[in-house]
Amino acid sequence: MKGIGIVSYGSNIPRYRIKAEEIASVWGKDGESISKGLGVNEKSVPSVDQDTATISVEAARAALRRCSVDPQEIGAIYVGSESHPYAVKPTGTIVGEAIGATPDLMVADYEFACKAGTAGIQSCTALVKGNLVKYGLAIGADTSQAAPGDALEFSASAGGGAFIIGRDNVIATINHTCSFTTDTPDFWRRAERKYPAHGGRFTGAPAYFKHITSCATNIMEMAGTKPEDYDYAIFHQPNGKFPIKVAKMLGFTYDQIKQGLLAPYIGNTYSGATMIGLASVLDVAKPGDRVFLTSYGSGAGSDGFDITVTDKIKDLARDNAPTVAQMVEDKEYIDYGTYAKFTDLLYWE
Amino acid sequence: MRDVAVIGVGLTKFGELWDKSFRQLTAEAGSKAIFDAGIEGKEIDAMYVGSMSSGRFVGQEHVGALVADASGFSHVHIPSTRVEGACASGGLAVREGYLSIASGMNDVVVVGGIEKMNDVGGNAATETLATAADQEWEAFFGATFPGLYAMIATRHMHDYGTTKEQLAQVAVKNHANGALNPYAQYQREIKLETVLNATAVAYPLGLFDCSPVTDGAASIVLCAADKAKEYTDKAVKIIASGQASDTLSLHGRRDICTLDSTVYAAKMAYKQANLTPRDIDLAEVHDCFTIAEICAIEDLGFVEKGQGGKAVENKITTLDGSLPVNTSGGLKSKGHPVGATGVAQIVEIALQLRGDAEKRQVNDAKIGLAHNVGGSGATCTVHIMEAV
């Protein structure tokens, strides 16, 4: 895929945070040991007026502010999420209209648990490679849900990332990509159910770890690379523990993953997780840096990417939008009552 | 009564076995034991299978016939019987197999134990295990096994000065042994501080005081001792089989720190073998919780009542101690697939007495004891085995 890759990027993280300790105190649990066990200290919470559409628009606008791409030259938008505001009616059209990319535009909403965003990157890359579009916009964003009292409540959070894919002014080349997919029901939400269900420990070894290690091994085989060839690695982060463990299993060091590891500070942003991780790496990357990324979506599959940062990153107006680190730091803590209001736990019909 | 020998043993790996079905596990352990014994299907007179709650764990009952079928013996129509006695199901299956040979009814019997527990979540597994408690007087009031054994532990601490550190040392020892067992669920050593600082489950028991939820199967081939030489030169004799029962509920006992079912089953076994606790070289005991191992070594007569904690602290029960206990890693480290546990204990003692226990081999092991408990002590089996 010579010359095709990321032209610009943006991300968005809601500024509200709730501490694991605060959630634990409501349920009579030991917050400190849960924080330690999950590797998540606090998580981002969307405000009442934030949803996957607004987060997607904010992330897309941040990407556009950093480059000189004319929105009218964007020929495709894919929004990956498991919390699209509408069951029927696309999020992608809202984004397309908001950034001025309509009407000559291919749009579809994707859903593949936490990896729908990276699936969008793959689709955009293919469309650019096939010369069907000049630029494609791939977004992964979520305001993920967790049933009150469920273990997921400590990690399910909100955020998103947007990537403009093209051939011109590429700041990071996508050298290789591949996926590893099986039918593994580790986590799901049936139609019209408010909260997801999961298979407990089944979400670990046969799901997250099997798919990420298999996909990562395949991508390194395609690229002819080894873990030590990479400056940065990003793995899906349903909590703060799994990505550290999977990195170790594959032979990556903590130093390689720490820039892209946000789960301890913002929780699991689902479709946004690896997208925000990649944005965080691009916030600091230098020309020549090699980046490894493997996402994971329950159900289940992983998308792997071998990426090289180019000289063009120096020309990107990275300062025109806030960095991931700035958004992580720009926070306001809320209590569980406010959290319940913001996340519609107190809904009525 | 005829003498009975173990002529073959087989185990699956214990752990979270997501990619193996109930049927596959039982066939794997069974075929390993049959291969180890060198017997053919048509030579098997009967099969006994221990499984506590396959119906709730995997939705499958009628596992006696299933095990015979999965092992490839449906065409020879072997009588196959499932035995249930909570976590002592495996020990009961061993005893049924033993009795059927000792009585003269059968010559060659395959005994299996199986449980696949991870297919349901943690809460459902705990609820299923709690069906072994008294539903009317314990479970309906919210008691689960960690809670019941925690009550035993606090009383033991109160009456005998047993400490949380002594409980923790049971887990540390068993993990040290499990680290040497390639079939164990957790093949790693742990530190005392790890046990002491673990998440609380039910005071004084923390996460590392509790045996895990495990998938696994175990199998042995039993044979009339006088015919064992026809098949193998590695036979080990079962010289005694004891069994006893007690109140289903913990509060019905005369002393909650003593499992009278253990006391009586052991008494029966020692009498049959004409041995005393001092004659035992090593033991596999039912350490579903760390306090359970302390009670077990007391109730089996290895140490005086109340001295179990001190015995662990003084390292009497380590691999190189004077009475190694749970050389396999025990339920804590090897894992506890409930129906398989009692059979897996016999496998470990047989391996030790055969000299096949590799890195965890106890020197000069001649007499071994296996102790399997159901519930909080309502059922217990004790088997004593001797090297030939």
Which helices and strands appear, and what pairs or packs with what?
The complex is a heterodimer of chains A (349) and B (388).
Chain A: E1 5-12, E2 16-19, H1 20-27, H2 31-38, E3 42-45, H3 52-66, E4 74-80, H4 91-99, E5 106-110, H5 116-129, E6 135-143, E7 158-166, E8 172-184, E9 187-188, E10 197-198, H6 204-223, E11 232-235, H7 242-250, H8 254-257, H9 263-266, H10 273-284, E12 290-294, E13 299-309, H11 324-329, E14 332-333, H12 336-342
Parallel strand pairs in A: 2-14, 4-5, 4-6, 11-12
Antiparallel strand pairs in A: 1-7, 1-8, 2-3, 6-7, 8-13, 9-10, 12-13
Helix pairs in contact in A: 1-2, 3-4, 6-7
Chain B: E1 4-11, H1 22-37, E2 46-50, H2 54-57, H3 63-70, E3 80-83, H4 89-102, E4 108-116, H5 122-130, H6 145-160, H7 164-178, H8 192-196, E5 200-202, E6 205-206, E7 215-224, E8 236-245, H9 260-273, E9 282-284, H10 290-299, H11 308-313, H12 330-334, H13 338-354, E10 367-374, E11 379-387
Parallel strand pairs in B: 2-3, 2-4, 9-10
Antiparallel strand pairs in B: 1-7, 1-8, 4-7, 5-6, 8-11, 10-11
Entry keywords:
heterodimer, A: alpha/beta, Peroxisomal Thiolase, Chain A, domain 1, 2 domains, three-stranded mixed sheet, 24% strand, B: 388 residues, alpha/beta, two-stranded antiparallel sheet
The chain-level structural class of chain A is alpha/beta
Task: Give the proportion of residues in helices of chain A.
Answer: 25-40%
Rg of chain B, alpha carbons: 19 Å
User: What structural class do you assign from the helix and strand content of chain B?
Assistant: alpha/beta
Specify the CATH homologous superfamily of the largest domain in chain A: Thiolase/Chalcone synthase
Note the main sheet of chain B: 9 strands, mixed
Backbone shape of chain A: globular
CATH topology term of the largest domain in chain B: Peroxisomal Thiolase, Chain A, domain 1
The CATH superfamily of the largest domain in chain B turns out to be: Thiolase/Chalcone synthase
> What assembly state would you assign to the polypeptide chains in this entry?
heterodimer
